[in-house]
Design a protein that fits this description.
The chain is 57% helix and 6% strand. It is built from 13 helices and five strands. Helix 9 packs antiparallel against helix 12. Tryptophan binds next to strand 1 and helix 7.
Length: 331
Amino acid sequence: MNRKKILSGIQPTGHLHLGRYFGAVENWVKLQSEYDSIYCVVDYHAITMPYNPIKLKENVWELIYNLLACGIHAENLFIQSKVPEHTELAWILGCMCSYGELSRMTQFKDKSEQIKDKSKDSFVSSGIFTYPVLQAADILIYKADFVPVGKDQDQHLELTRNIAQKFNSVVGKEYFKAPEGMYSSTSKIMSTADPTKKMSASMGDKHNINVFAPIDQIRKQIRSAVTDAGERSDRLSPGVENLFMILKACNSIEEYNLLLNEYKNGTLQYGRFKDIIADAVIERVTPIQNNKAEILKNSKEVKESIKRSSAIIRERASQTISEVKALTGLG
Ligand code: AMP
Ligand code: TRP
């Protein structure tokens, strides 16, 4: 029986933090047993923002080691730039996507604002503008049925579906099918230092808890998490709600229910609460950190295996490109 196909991507920028882990990567690991799953480290996407080439290369391999340590299988993992057909398809799809549609992307608006604020020398690259077309190519080139991502990627998926439809109408054939988003049960982990903001790599170290940070640092970051000013009500403060979400994400459901009851009857002590959460997170990340130590001992072989998987996955992409070129009158 043909298994349904999954494709997702992650940018080689910043840490693999608890938000990325619980919001995406943990789910990717589980999906591998049920679906034909492939996961892509999107280095072509990473160069849409100002970057340092040496750092980029280091980040790509670091992320690969981290993803493998989390449980992604090497044969399911590849590097986007090792499959240049993605960019070839992106060009063709870009010619079927209007300027207006791309201008409406909120990520484009946010990122271009971020750059303008940064320095006089930086500029908004046309790559940031066409970023979602490349993402559509990543997905459509493997004819993925499902795309496991966070809710923040909804708009890009909608655009991917529109591009697929437009392509089909241009070539007069139902060639691409519209992919669906697939969302993990952990919606959005917030920064423990400022729980009104999403935990993210770009906001600075204190705003994300790195899965691979020393255990002491993880404990310290959780201990200093913002909670509330002491006035408890039926509505949890963003900080306390976030800590409960992290506890739930660690699968500590019994403790979660127990502590939530304590919160409701006013007996929950935040010091103890944070220690329990720190223990749960540390229990979860320790085996992952141990896996990474093993992987680093064999980094050469690991690199070879990812180069091999990228070459095998490339064959699938080439097949689509040949068909697309035939359908679009190219080559
Ligand atoms: P990014 O960090 O933007 O490269 O995102 C990689 C994946 O992790 C995407 O599917 C995001 O939706 C997800 N993700 C990133 N940060 C968080 C967060 N704080 N909470 C939940 N999911 C997240
Ligand atoms: N834009 C995605 C993000 O920021 C990363 C990404 C690139 C992606 N290509 C993809 C996600 C293809 C899913 C499918 O998280």
